Structure formats: structure tokens, C-alpha cells
Inverse folding.
């Protein structure tokens, strides 16, 4: 089974801090994604990556950046955390070669609170 | 812009009942549709994926159907159990280009009472 692991289940950070959310997958997937999930707004795509060192903006990239130095790891960075970034963050991965026919595999999420 | 709607937002049923969850989408030009399950405070687990050329997919007690022309999909759960309690989300992929992104519904929160 595919395993997508997010390093923290819960994080509490202060406004202005730089925050790193880490995600690792063990299935050699090319594609990795970061979503945030908020009540009433559903899941929204922040950034995604099709290969090492490649990244593309999703629907809500403002205030975020990403890093993909190794194939198995995709990091989401909040450069200066703000209270409106309090949310559940979900990482996902999928295979490139079967991308259009393969399901997304999600991690368990990181609940981030910015105070 | 593609919009995905799931009605009802919440559903409560007694154990053993067969039930149907609904998903509708505004743009019928989709490539595939996926159903997920989400337990409280956790990530999403993929249940079924239906290609646009398919009418249905089955996995155990779950059966998902797709009617592209009417912009609808249903998830049928047979003989529901308390362990089926979760939020169920559907998501559509609009096309096969590299920029093609999933659009998610907000989910139906299902409670199966013992």
C-alpha cells in the first residue's frame, strides 16, 4: 500500500514565524500535491510538483512556497505565518505514468493553528 | 468554472440500511470522477475511480455510478455499518492535460447508528 506521511499531526505557531510542513511518500510517485481544507471552502490546491525541483502554483499559492529536492519529499513553507493560514493541510501523491487513471493517495493531514 | 455539489451535507441512517450519496457537477466534460472517504481529523482515502467512458465501478459493498451527460454520480453503500460513518467526498478531473486539477465537493457526512 502507498504510504504518505506528514511529519506532524498538530502544530501551533505564532504569527510571523516561518513554518515548514513535511511530506514523504514511499511509492516512488512523481506527482505530489499540497491542499488545504477549510469548513465551507472544501479542499483547495496550494502547489503541486511533477518532478524533483519542479513546482506549479495551484489555486491559492499566495503566502506559501514549496520545495522538492528529493523525489519522495515535498515540503510546504509558510514564509511568515498569519492567522488566516490556520487550517488542515493535506499532502497527496500519485503516479505520473498512470496519473490520469490513478487515484490520489493522501496523508493524514497536519492541523496548523497560527496564533 | 467547474463546481461540484454534494447533497445532503449530512445523513444519518440506522445500521443495515442501503443508502445513496449524490454528487453533481456543472461541466460534463470530465475525464474521471473519484470518491473518497475521510474520517474525522484524518486524510482522504480513495474508494473508487470512474473513467468518463465507464458507467459504474464496484468495490465490495460500494458501487459508484456516473452519468456524464446529466452531470451526476452516485455512491451506493449496501448494508451500512457503523464503521461506514465518515465524510464522503467526490472529486472530478476536467481533462487529461498536465494542468488538469481535481475539483472537490464539500462532502456528505454520514452517520450509521447501531
Amino acid at each position: 500500500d502507498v504510504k504518505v506521511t506528514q511529519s506532524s499531526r498538530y502544530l501551533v505557531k505564532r504569527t510571523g514565524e516561518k513554518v515548514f510542513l513535511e511530506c514523504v511518500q514511499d511509492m516512488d510517485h512523481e506527482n505530489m500535491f499540497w491542499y488545504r481544507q477549510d469548513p465551507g471552502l472544501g479542499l483547495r490546491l496550494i502547489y503541486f510538483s511533477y518532478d524533483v525541483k519542479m513546482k506549479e502554483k495551484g489555486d491559492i499559492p499566495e503566502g506559501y512556497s514549496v520545495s522538492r529536492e528529493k523525489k519522495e519529499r515535498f515540503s510546504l513553507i509558510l514564509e511568515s505565518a498569519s492567522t488566516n493560514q490556520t487550517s488542515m493541510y493535506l499532502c497527496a501523491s500519485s503516479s505520473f505514468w498512470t496519473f490520469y487513471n490513478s487515484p490520489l493517495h493522501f496523508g493524514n493531514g497536519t492541523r496548523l493553528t497560527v496564533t | 468554472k467547474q463546481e461540484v455539489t454534494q447533497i445532503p451535507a449530512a445523513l444519518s441512517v440506522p445500521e443495515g440500511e442501503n443508502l445513496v450519496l449524490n454528487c453533481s457537477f456543472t461541466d460534463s466534460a470530465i475525464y474521471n470522477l473519484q470518491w473518497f472517504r475521510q474520517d474525522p481529523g484524518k486524510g482522504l482515502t480513495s474508494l473508487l475511480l470512474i473513467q468518463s467512458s465507464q458507467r459504474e465501478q464496484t468495490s465490495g459493498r460500494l458501487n459508484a455510478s456516473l452519468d456524464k451527460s446529466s452531470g451526476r454520480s452516485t455512491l451506493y453503500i449496501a448494508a451500512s455499518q457503523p464503521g461506514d460513518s465518515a465524510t464522503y467526498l467526490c472529486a472530478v478531473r476536467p481533462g487529461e492535460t498536465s494542468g488538469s486539477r481535481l475539483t472537490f465537493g464539500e462532502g456528505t457526512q454520514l452517520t450509521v447508528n447501531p
Q: What stands out?
A: Chain A touches chain B at residues 4, 6, 40, 42-43, 45, 48, 50, 56, 58-59, 90, 92, 100-109, 111 (CB under 8 Å). Chain A has a mean pLDDT of 91. The radius of gyration of chain A is 13 Å. The first strand of chain A starts at residue 4 and ends at 6.
